[in-house]
Write a structure and sequence with these properties.
Blueprint lengths: L1 H20 L7 E3 L3 E4 L5 E4 L3 E7 L5 E10 L2 E8 L3 E7 L7 E6 L4 E5 L3 H17 L1
Parallel strand pairs: 7-9
Antiparallel strand pairs: 1-2, 2-3, 4-8, 5-6, 6-7, 8-9
Length: 135
């Protein structure tokens, strides 16, 4: 019985490390004066001059198709085609858990990001709004 419990524990630890290392974990947002950096799989740097809009949404358009990326459970990372919105980058820990942050760039690219912890999503949205207003 002890061997099975240890085996289960080690398997759980391995899966957690594997998927976190593969980018399924949360994408963090880091701020400098003139750009934000989104870490993790499909992360990127965005200059403040390239941001046209930031919104906090209660829902995202229906996900129609994964065009390049990964989904594991409710996590969505990469490029997806959305109903009525076309191609977008999703950095979602949960595609069903509102709210969602939308970062729209001047070139029309859209990035949706959220966290399992709703307060974390709201806090990042507030930091993004403050960053835009200060710069």
């Amino acid at each position: 019985m002890k061997f099975n419990s240890l085996k289960s524990l080690l398997t759980s630890i391995f899966i957690t490390i594997f998927f976190t290392g593969c980018g399924i974990g949360a994408n963090e947002i880091f701020f400098t004066q003139d750009e934000i950096r989104i870490s993790g799989l499909y992360g990127e740097k965005i200059n403040i001059r390239d941001v046209s809009e930031i919104e906090l949404l209660d829902r995202i358009p229906k996900i129609l198709l994964r065009t390049g990326g990964t989904n594991f459970g409710e996590a969505r990372k990469g490029y997806f085609r959305l109903e009525d919105r076309g191609r977008a980058k999703l950095l979602l820990q949960s595609s069903r858990s509102a709210p969602f942050i939308l970062i729209e760039k001047n070139n029309g690219e859209r990035i949706y990001i959220n966290y399992i912890d709703r307060n974390k999503t709201r806090n990042y949205y507030q930091k993004l709004s403050d960053w835009i207003n200060e710069n």
